[in-house]
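New to this. Please check this protein:
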Amino acid sequence: MTPPGRSAEEALAADFDDHRGLLFSVAYRMLGSVEDAEDTVQDAWLRWSAEDRDDVRDRRAYLVRVTTRLALNRLRGARARRESYVGPWLPEPLLDTLPSTDPAADPEARGTSAESISMAMLLVLETLTPAERAVFVLREVFGYPHAEIAAALERSEASVRQLAHRARSHVQARRPEVGLGGAGGPGDRAGVDAEQLARITGKFVEACYEGDVEGLKAMLAEDVRLITDGGGKVRAARRPVLGARKAASFLVSVWAMYADDPGRTREAATINGAPGVVFRRDGLLDATLTLDIDGDGRVRQVFLVRNPDKLARWDGESREGGEAGDAGDGRRGRIQHG
């Protein structure tokens, strides 16, 4: 029944928006792209608004199923495109400045831990097959039962259990310090909390600006990996920089190029659920920095995203002069109804 004072179309849109936070959460973890996740949710809305919904008993389960299938199709296409990507690929950063796309915006969503959307975890998920990734996200992050996942993927429950086991083993081999419980998503990294990470990140950036190579080396794990994503559109390392000495020297040399530029500023931010830093040039977002810290407080991975296509949505004004968060069709993180 349509609520009083609302048209059927308005009621339908409001019903969908009740589930939007969860649907975005699923899509972003599967795709590693805010834009692709928003497009997937938009496609789910189009399906939902055109379907005969009389036989849908559990709308939430139905919408998650549709979103998962759409994300799987989009992921397969995205992986083919990434084969020709210039330089290392990093997930599109998720800043906390757009509440409507916050993965934790849905109070019933279970995947609220910072680790489940960390750059490091999303990169590990990139190494799974699309089906394994879907099962891992639905099972380990959101706690869905195997039977429900089987229905979403149109596979047998036995097949889903096998995929879940493979995905879980794969992730644990690469992130052994992260607890996988299946009831609330991957837990926080052992021995590292947000306050400690923020403190280390601030000290790390100060050492870069001060040109303190030795100080940086002392903060880095010996096998540290520095990844910069410029997408071939701005200056960035075309390959990961490996090892403490090379990474420290690279960082200091890069910072030295911009140290005297009065148009460059930096500020602390929450990026992919964890403390990070955003850098601006003449007011426009130029880069995001996040760190992956081991249990001893040493930096083992550095993630610098500079590809302007992954940053423009977070500017106060986009590079084309549009509004913040504009995904190219005026959505600004909202579903377009009608």
Observations:
- Residues 110-190 form a domain with the Arc Repressor Mutant, subunit A fold (CATH 1.10.10.10).
- Residues 97-112, 317-338 have pLDDT under 50 and may be disordered.
- Strands lie at 220-229, 241-242, 264-271, 274-281, 284-293, 299-305.
